[in-house]
Amino acid sequence: MKTDSQGLPLRYLGLAILLIWLVALGYYFRTQVPVFSPSPPANAGLRVEDREEWMGLYQQGRKIGYNHSVWRRQGEEYLLQDELVLRIKLMGEPQETRVKLEGRLKPDFSLQSFRLEAFSDFMDLRAQGEVQGNLLKLTAFSAGQEIKQDLPLAQRPVLYTTWVFAERLKQAGLKPGLSLSLPVFEPLTRQTLPVTLVVEAEESVDALGKKIKAFKVRESFQGQEQFFWVTPEGEVLKEWHASGLSAVRETEEQALLKGWDEAGTVDLIAALMVRSNTAILDPRQVSYLRLRLKGISLKGLDLASDRQKVWGDVVEVIRESEEVAARGYPLPWRDDAGEMAAYLQADASVQSDHPQIREAAREAVGSARDAFGAAMRLNRWVAEEVKDSMVMSIPSALEVLQKKRGACKEHAVLYTAMARSLGIPARIASGIVYSEAQLIDGFYYHAWVEVYLAGPKGEGGRWVAVDPTFNQFPADATHVRLVEGGLDQMLSLLSVVGQLEVEVESYQ
Fold first, then answer.
1. What is the pTM assigned to this prediction?
2. pLDDT tens per residue, range 93-134
3. What is the pLDDT of residues 259-298, one digit of tens each?
4. Short-list 161, 170, 54, 156, CA closest to 116
5. What is the spatial distance between Cα 448 and Cα 467, in angstroms, rounded to a whole number?
6. What's phi and psi for 23, nearest 5 deg?
7. Cβ pair 249, 235 in contact under 8 A
8. Residue 141, strand partner residues
9. 197 by DSSP, 3-state: which?
10. Could you give the 3-state DSSP secondary structure of residue 361?
11. Domains and their CATH numbers in the chain
12. Are 464 and 472 in contact (CB under 8 A)?
């Protein structure tokens, strides 16, 4: 069984690393159908001059990467080319992630087409799309698979980049009190999202070795916020998020050379640890936990579950007994058209209908034909077969199966896909978990799985937390769920990173 061994002190950070580098990219995720308020029209007749800009990326003031953007006029369109480089040391080894984005924009900065590449030692993700009429025609490539999708558009979106936001604000008359609501297309999740921009005040910002006057802009996504500072000419000088990530305007030389002697040495453990008032002894054996969640708004979080009760900011977690639903229902679950339908379906990350996933699942469970036995064997198989490894990736079940390595988010997405392929309702849970491994003594962001188990005739059904990263069936009570769902919901945790504190009241 995988435990809190000193040899694997960083595997708890798998979800947190996903969160922190997606914040650096500026990508936020939501599934709600957006409603947009009218915004002042852009002045399509105003020519925007060609320009090139560099930004240094920092975590708590220490450099972790850079961003390079080029903006050019081509005929009646604009060409935006953007490259982000992120370097962080994981388990003693440096890892580099690069994201390249090219977008063609109409004169009003709305999207015409885009092409995206995101790659690291572990990840190779490509996507492209073009607006045709009221459709955005998309093609994504991941794990050797090509996925095509037509996304209906109620209105033409703008591309998610601060440079576009700055131009729209400038053309609307940049001044304190100005508010815009824009439809934004985010290429990684292939969704159109609502973004609200509010100009708050004029301030002086340190950039390019001097103080420059700029307008502070609040950028909001239904409870999530970050800020950026833009000059009257529409140049972005700084971006900041509560997690401690920031981007600062630099010269090319500064962006490429300055501070790289410290790059890759950022202490993610210190940066992402959730503060607690007390230490928890032997956390993998904890069967009961009562704590308070402090420093954040609980609105929008998925705190209540079959094993987790909530009273205001107090959360009580009770670990299920190992005998729960020990005589599970025969597979597959038959009510796949009812309330469990969503937890049995495949999606872009959970490819439960892929032949390789199905074959691996059948091999993993062997002769087990009931849900309890199959879920337990599957948990052990994923824990043993997927090597613990810190990777910077957008998790894909098929890619994890092929490469057999990853952190908590990779374990969780593969388990979920394999369970669904067998007919076991499964869903990803994300939140915090306690660790006492070397260099770690506190709560960290983590992902695990909940499976639906019931008796032979479906009686007494409940969601049971299991952790294929730790090989726990069921998971201990220090697993505190904050959100439930796939990658789009995992990113809801961005609203608490860097702000959440825990006060443990009791445990046993």
1. 0.72
2. 567 778 888 889 888 878 889 888 877 765 667 788 898 988
3. 765 545 555 555 667 888 888 989 999 999 999 999 888 8
4. 161
5. 5
6. -65, -40
7. yes
8. 126, 146
9. strand
10. helix
11. 31-257 (2.50.20), 273-507 (3.10.620.30)
12. no
Q: In whole angstroms, what separates CA 348 from the centre of its chain? A: 15
CB distance 357 to 418 below 8 Å: yes
| 296: Cβ contacts below 8 Å, ≥ 6 apart | 495, 496, 499, 500
Whole-number Å distance between alpha carbons of 435 and 417: 27
Task: Tell me the C-alpha distance between 229 and 240, whole Å.
Answer: 9
Q: Tell me the C-alpha to C-alpha distance, in Å, between residue 11 and each of 14, 22, 244, 473.
A: 6, 18, 21, 18
At position 174, the amino acid (one-letter code) is: L
Nearest by Cα to 412 from 471, 372, 452: 471
- Within 10 angstroms of residue 236's Cβ, the number of other Cβ atoms is 23
DSSP string for 255-276: HHHTTTTTTT---HHHHHPBEE
Other Cβ atoms closer than 10 A to 62: 15
Report residue 138 CA to chain centroid gap: 21
Structure tokens given for 43: 């002045």
Alpha helices, H only, 320-464: 355-365, 371-385, 397-403, 408-422
Enter the DSSP assignment of 394: -
- Structural tokens at position 115: 């092409």
| Angle of CA points 119, 122, 123, to nearest 5° | 35
Hunting for tokens 């705190």 — which residue is that?
Answer: 303
